[in-house]
UniProtKB/TrEMBL annotation:
One of its GO terms (biological process) is lipid metabolic process. Signal peptide: none annotated. Residues 94-224 form the Fungal lipase-type domain. InterPro entries: AB_hydrolase_fold, Fungal_lipase-type, Sec_MonoDiacylglyc_Lipase. This is Fungal lipase-type domain-containing protein. Gene3D superfamilies: alpha/beta hydrolase.
Length: 296
């Protein structure tokens, strides 16, 4: 069943109808909660959800219930574990907020790179502590939306610190609660676990995890893997090059050369390119641009 999410900026796509895979769209994006393979349409909706998690709670309701058509939603706020859960027929959406510059606790969570036992291997201690602090509230929200028939497909997303928390939440749900998660879309995610964690996670859920990286986004290269801290990414890479082109799979050498080209192209512009490439606004616009190209 298709769940239609109405985009916040109706004019972003214009009024001209376009077709994707036989689906005619104007201002509405179809979201398929049952799909398992990569979906650019779903990616755009989840990018908007990851961005919405940064907004104040009073702005979330009008978007989620008024414009996106969700039946119910709840904001959660426990330390660095912040975001929202929302429910609509056939769909539960869980979105985690990333680091906020003025939130000191977020920086402490980011900085604590010690590895400690997690659901499927050793994981980033700071991220895990942040998730555990808010887990009971998150768990309660998911249980409330689950329903007796368990027919709602659970989708999880997040940006930056939020992407790390989304990954750990997915692992916790899969390994400890034996709960079905339909898909995980990550934007600008740091590494969250060691080789053992990444191998186990990818074996069980890598095919349904999609990790977006934008050119020189510095956060996606942290924490730096060492012998003492053998961090490794999870999921399937979706890489935007410095021309904003989306690659489903690309070599480390291609990405290295592309990052150099991106830095050269950004010379003379204000701000560090590694930070600018990390902004959620940029990820959202890149996914939207890729979707526009697909719709032509």
């Amino acid at each position: 069943m298709l769940i239609h999410l109405i985009v916040l900026d109706v004019d972003a796509l214009g009024s001209k109808a376009r077709t994707i895979n036989g689906e005619t769209m104007t201002s509405n994006f179809p979201f398929d909660p049952q799909v398992r393979n990569f979906s650019l349409v779903n990616a755009y909706a989840l990018a908007r959800a990851a961005k919405l998690a940064y907004r104040p709670p009073e702005h979330m309701g009008p978007a989620l219930q008024g414009e996106w058509g969700f039946d119910d939603w709840q904001y959660f706020d426990q330390g660095s574990a912040r975001g929202f859960a929302a429910s609509q027929a056939g769909l539960i959406l869980l979105s985690f907020r990333g680091t906020k510059v003025d939130h000191l606790e977020d920086w402490f969570a980011d900085a604590n790179i010690q590895l400690e036992p997690g659901s499927a291997g050793r994981v980033h201690a700071g991220f895990q502590h942040a998730l555990l602090r808010g887990w009971k509230e998150i768990q309660s929200l998911l249980d409330a939306y689950r329903g007796d028939d368990h027919s709602h497909a659970l989708w999880i997303t997040g940006h930056s610190l939020g992407a790390a928390l989304a990954t750990l939440a997915t692992a916790k749900l899969l390994w400890e609660e034996q709960r079905v998660v339909q898909g995980l879309y990550l934007f600008g995610s740091p590494r969250v676990g060691d080789n053992v964690f990444a191998t186990a996670f990818d074996r069980r859920f890598g095919a349904q995890t999609f990790r977006f990286v934008n050119n020189n986004d510095v956060v996606t290269r942290l924490p730096i893997p060492t012998r003492l801290f053998p961090y490794r990414h999870v999921g399937r890479l979706k890489y935007f090059d410095h021309h904003s082109r989306l690659y489903g799979n690309t070599s480390w050498l291609h990405r290295l050369l592309d990052r150099v080209q991106g830095r050269v192209a950004d010379l003379g512009n204000p701000g560090a390119v590694g930070i600018k490439d990390h902004h959620m606004d940029r990820y959202e616009s890149l996914v939207e641009r890729s979707l526009h190209a697909r719709m032509k």
